[in-house]
Design brief:
This protein is 36% helix and 21% strand. With 446 residues, it is an alpha+beta fold. The chain folds into two domains: 54-115, no CATH class; 132-178 and 185-438, no CATH class. The strands form four sheets. Strands 5, 6, 7, 10, 11, 12, 13, 14, 15, 16, 17 and 18 form a twelve-stranded antiparallel beta sheet that branches. Strands 1-2 form a two-stranded antiparallel ribbon. Strands 3-4 form a two-stranded antiparallel ribbon. α1 runs antiparallel to α2 (81-99). It is found in: Cell membrane. InterPro entries: EccE_dom, T7SS_EccE. Residues 242-349 form the Type VII secretion system protein EccE domain.
Length: 446
C-alpha cells in the first residue's frame, strides 16, 4: 500500500478553487437506443454559486471594513473636527484595503492567498520512505494522501485514495473497440451522470469529478517541417483527435455525509469502502448502458492514473524508483507549479457560456479548452450538491509544458480559446498547488 503520514485535520479542509462553481445545467443525453421523441432543452447559462463568506459580489469582510470606516468618520464628527480628520485618514486606508485591487484581485483575497502560500511552504515535509515514485509528487502536494486496496466478495481487487477523512474511487471510461475508429465524440461521456451519481440508494457522495487528460498530435515541440507534423497536421486540424486521451470519473465519499449507509455495511473503513464500491459499480453499469466501457481501478492502477494526471516525467519516475531518491521533485511559485522538468499552470472556470440545444455543447467546450498546443492538458469538472439543494459544477483547466516560455505560449492560446467560447477563466496565481490538486482525480476541489 502506498502511504503517507496523515497530518491534516478536517477543520483545515478548504476549497482552493477561489470559491464555488456555477450552478449546473442538466444536459439531456439520448438513451442508448435512440428511440422516442424528446423535447429539446433550451439554452441555459450556468449561474455562479456564491463564494464562501460572500454576499453576491461583495464579501462580508469587505462590508465590515466599509462599515468600520464609516463608523470612525461619524464618531470623529460627533467628538471634534480634528479627530474627524484623523479618523477620515484611517477610514480611507480601510476603504483601500476593502475595495482596492491588485492585478484585478481584491486586496483581501490577495493577502489571503499570499499568507496561504507561505503556510504551505512552511509546512513542507519529506516524502516518507516506501511511497511509489509515480505517487511521490502527489504526496509532496498533500502528505496526508494514501492509497488502499480492498478485496470484495468475488476476490476483485479495488483501489482507493484518501487522507483518512475522505475516500475516492476511480472509474476509467473508454470508448468501445470498433473495426473503424468512430467519429470524434460520437459517444461522449454523459456528464449529467455526475449529478445522478451523487446519491446512490442510501449512499450520499460528497462529489463526483470528471477528469480528462489529453496530449495533442502532432507533439507541439516538433518543428513544422517534421514528417509527423506535415503528415498528421492536416488530419488533426480537421478532426481535432488528440494523440492520447484518458478519462476518469472520481467518486468521493465523506463517511460523515451518510453514516447510516456506512454503518449498514459494517462500519469503519471497511463500511466506507463497501459503500463507495457500491456507488462506483452503479456508475459503471450506467455508463455501460450508454455504450461506454468503464471499470473500477485497482490500487496500482489508481497510482498510475494519478501519475499520469500529475504529468510527472517518466524518466524521473524511473530514476527515483531505481535510486530511491528522497530529493523533492515539486515546487510551487506564484504563477506556476513545477514537477521534475515540467511547468504547470492551473485555471478556474469563473463563468460559462450558454450551454444546451442551439448553443455550445458542453463536450465541445471541454474539447476546446483542453485541445491547445500544450505538452498536455487536464480538464476537471466537479459536481456536488451545492447550496440550497442547487446542483453545482466547478471547472478547472491545467496546462503542462516543457519550459516557462512554452507554458506562456500555451496560456495565451488557452485564454484566447476561452474568450472565443465566451468562457471566463481565472489563473490561480499563488494558488497553483491547490489548483493542481483540483485537477487530479481525487474527487474535486480540496
Amino acid at each position: 500500500m502506498s502511504s503517507a503520514t496523515r497530518s491534516r485535520r478536517r477543520s483545515r479542509r478548504q476549497d482552493p478553487s477561489r470559491g464555488g462553481g456555477p450552478a449546473a445545467p442538466h444536459p439531456v443525453a439520448p438513451p442508448p437506443g435512440g428511440g422516442g421523441q424528446r423535447r429539446a432543452p433550451t439554452p441555459v447559462t450556468p449561474r455562479l454559486r456564491s463564494r464562501g463568506g460572500g454576499l453576491g459580489a461583495v464579501r462580508v469582510r469587505q462590508l465590515v471594513l466599509v462599515e468600520i470606516a464609516l463608523a470612525l468618520v461619524l464618531v470623529g464628527l460627533a467628538v471634534h473636527m480634528l479627530l474627524a480628520v484623523a479618523m477620515a485618514v484611517v477610514a480611507v486606508l480601510l476603504l483601500v484595503a476593502a475595495l482596492g485591487r491588485w492585478r484585478r484581485v481584491p486586496l483581501p483575497d490577495w493577502f489571503a492567498t499570499v499568507r496561504a502560500m507561505k503556510r504551505r511552504k512552511a509546512a513542507i515535509v519529506p516524502v516518507p520512505p516506501g511511497v511509489e515514485s509515480a505517487f511521490a509528487p502527489v504526496v509532496e502536494c498533500d502528505p496526508s494522501l494514501r492509497t488502499y486496496e480492498y478485496m470484495d466478495r468475488e476476490q476483485r481487487a479495488v483501489g482507493f485514495v484518501g487522507d483518512g477523512t475522505f475516500l475516492t474511487a476511480l472509474v476509467q471510461v473508454e470508448a468501445p473497440d470498433e473495426p473503424l475508429r468512430p467519429v470524434r465524440d460520437s459517444r461522449p461521456v454523459p456528464l449529467h451522470l455526475l449529478h445522478s451519481a451523487l446519491q446512490i440508494e442510501d449512499i450520499r457522495l460528497e462529489s463526483a469529478q470528471f477528469v480528462q487528460y489529453s496530449q495533442p498530435a502532432p507533439a507541439p515541440h516538433l518543428p513544422p517541417q517534421a514528417v509527423a507534423a506535415v503528415s498528421y497536421g492536416p488530419l488533426q486540424a480537421r478532426t481535432g483527435t488528440p494523440a492520447v486521451q484518458m478519462t476518469w470519473i472520481a467518486l468521493k465519499l465523506d463517511p460523515e455525509l451518510c453514516p447510516e449507509a456506512v454503518e449498514a455495511r459494517g462500519g469503519g473503513l471497511g463500511g466506507a469502502q463497501r459503500s463507495l464500491l457500491r456507488a462506483a459499480d452503479q456508475l459503471v453499469s450506467r455508463l455501460s448502458g450508454y455504450g461506454l466501457e468503464a471499470r473500477v481501478l485497482e490500487e496500482r492502477e489508481v497510482v498510475a492514473a494519478l501519475g499520469v494526471a500529475v504529468c510527472a516525467s517518466p524518466r524521473a519516475n524511473v530514476a527515483a524508483g531505481r535510486d530511491n531518491q528522497s530529493r523533492r521533485r515539486t515546487e510551487e511559485t506564484a504563477r506556476a507549479w513545477r514537477c521534475d522538468d515540467r511547468w504547470h499552470s492551473s485555471y478556474w472556470v469563473r463563468s460559462w457560456p450558454q450551454l444546451g440545444s442551439g448553443a455550445t455543447p458542453l463536450a465541445d467546450l471541454v474539447r476546446l479548452l483542453s485541445g491547445g498546443r500544450a505538452m498536455a492538458s487536464v480538464f476537471s469538472l466537479t459536481a456536488d450538491h451545492g447550496t440550497h439543494s442547487a446542483r453545482a459544477l466547478t471547472g478547472h483547466v491545467r496546462l503542462c509544458a516543457r519550459s516557462d516560455n512554452e507554458l506562456a505560449a500555451a496560456q495565451q492560446e488557452l485564454e484566447q480559446r476561452a474568450r472565443s467560447a465566451k468562457a471566463g477563466l481565472v489563473r490561480l496565481d499563488r494558488e497553483q498547488l491547490p489548483g493542481l490538486l483540483a485537477t487530479l482525480p481525487l474527487g474535486g476541489t480540496r
